[in-house]
């Protein structure tokens, strides 16, 4: 079942005896698990009817005992297994999954990995449980997710600002959601979020961020690039060197792909380059004009080399400050 459909049913108080939540994106798992834990029961009901266990500490006997109890002065009781991927005897719950108690809502939160549903336990889940499989978003999908999430909170965010937030916060959705919630608390409903508001409430500099560094490098604007590098060197905690390398590698990888797509349509470019929004194509096209295929290959090689240097793999660079490595790397990208 889809995440949105599970939430919709929960809001309508349409409950199922077993929820099995698994996959590589913990944000969606936590949203469902937390909702059931905190919203299904009233405060008075929770004292007798809510059991929260952790996979590393719990065994199947504890869970079976809890799940088979009858609720006290409530139509339901809730049993939540957090970090179920750590539970060694998880499959020993097979007999319960095959015949779950109708008055119990059992939530199994199996985070950070996909469970093999072709096993006997998995087949029982497919027959008797609501299953949610989550997948991490690709980097290029995060800006559109930000736009949708903000819209649900009565805010509008343009693609450029969504891209800026995604570049700064990365693809960890729980972190992104927390920052957007903070933004929603401070910005009036119905507002179109500005860069000034992003800078004030999320802490992203309008001028000095990796998103703007892409643009400066794409146009080979050395003056702007050097000014930004100076800022990053002086404020390493705001934009760590390895984060900058990773972001630039992702950017120039797409520029490299663009060199092979010739006269492809915009739709084909978006699909082949895995770019979530046409707004960002112009920066890749600009970079492709200033860096031919061989130059782009060289940039990617430089980024790989400096990634190793940043991680101390090169013996001769273990004591070189990251700020100096950053200046050297960017100078070579622009001038070589």
What does this protein look like?
The chain is of the alpha/beta class and about 325 residues long. It folds into 3 domains: about 5-135, 3-Layer(aba) Sandwich (Rossmann fold), CATH 3.40.50.300; about 140-200, Helicase, Ruva Protein, domain 3; about 210-335, Zinc Finger, Delta Prime, domain 3. Helix content is about 55%, strand content about 10%. It has 17 helices and 5 strands. The chain has helices spanning about 5-10, 25-40, 45-50, 60-65, 95-100, 120-130, 140-150, 160-170, 175-185, 195-200, 210-220, 220-235, 240-260, 265-275, 280-290, 295-310, 320-335, and strands spanning about 20-25, 50-55, 75-80, 105-110, 130-135. It has a 5-stranded parallel sheet with strand order 2-3-4-1-5, sandwiched between helices. Strand 3, helix 5 (about 95-100) and strand 4 form a beta-alpha-beta unit. The longest helix has 18 residues, at about 240-260. The chain is elongated, with a radius of gyration of 25 Å. The mean pLDDT is about 90.
């Amino acid at each position: 079942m889809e995440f949105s459909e599970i939430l919709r049913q929960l809001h309508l108080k349409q409950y199922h005896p077993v929820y099995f939540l698994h996959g590589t994106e913990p944000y969606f798992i936590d949203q469902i698990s937390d909702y059931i834990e905190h919203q299904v029961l009233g405060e008075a009901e929770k004292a007798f009817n809510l059991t929260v266990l952790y996979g590393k500490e719990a065994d199947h006997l504890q869970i079976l005992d809890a799940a088979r109890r009858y609720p006290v002065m409530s139509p339901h009781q809730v049993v939540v297994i957090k970090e179920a991927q750590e539970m060694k005897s998880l499959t020993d719950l097979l007999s319960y999954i095959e015949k779950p108690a109708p008055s119990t809502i059992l939530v199994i939160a199996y985070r950070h990995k996909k469970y093999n549903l072709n096993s006997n336990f998995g087949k029982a889940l497919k027959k008797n449980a609501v299953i949610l499989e989550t997948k991490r978003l690709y980097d290029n999908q995060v800006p559109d997710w930000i736009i949708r999430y903000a819209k649900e909170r009565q805010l509008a965010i343009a693609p450029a600002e969504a891209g800026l937030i995604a570049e700064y916060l990365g693809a960890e959705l729980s972190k992104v959601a927390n920052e957007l919630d903070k933004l929603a608390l401070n910005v009036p409903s119905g507002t179109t979020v500005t860069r000034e508001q992003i800078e004030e409430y999320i802490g992203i500099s309008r001028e000095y961020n990796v998103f703007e560094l892409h643009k400066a490098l794409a146009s080979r604007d050395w003056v702007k690039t050097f000014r930004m590098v100076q800022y990053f060197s002086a404020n390493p905690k705001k934009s760590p060197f390895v984060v900058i390398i990773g972001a630039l590698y992702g950017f120039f990888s797409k520029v490299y792909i663009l060199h092979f797509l010739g006269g492809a349509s915009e739709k084909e470019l978006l699909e082949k380059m895995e770019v979530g929004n046409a707004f960002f194509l112009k920066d890749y096209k600009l970079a492709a004009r200033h860096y031919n295929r061989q130059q782009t290959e060289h940039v990617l090689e430089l980024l790989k080399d400096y990634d190793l240097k940043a991680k101390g793999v090169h013996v001769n660079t273990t004591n070189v400050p990251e700020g100096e490595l950053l200046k050297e790397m960017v100078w070579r990208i622009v001038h070589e």
